[in-house]
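Changelog-adjacent note: as of this version, every example in the card shows the full chain rather than a window. The one below runs 68 residues end to end.
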Amino acid sequence: MKFCQISAGGSLAGAVKLNRKLTDIAINWAGGLHHAKKSEASGFCYINDIVLAILELLKYHQRVLYVD
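Full-length structure tokens:
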């Protein structure tokens, strides 16, 4: 559980800082666990931090480009 909080928290914090224009670039080296599905884990991915960050970015931006 702690790892999920750190991973998702880092991605979400980066998105918040981007939205508030506190930074131009945000990288979460512990994130990127994008294989998790809405209601189940997949592989080693227990939470989809990328989706959480994108949802945060969409609060302030009409479109978000995600490159995997």
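Structural remarks: The chain has one domain: 2-57.
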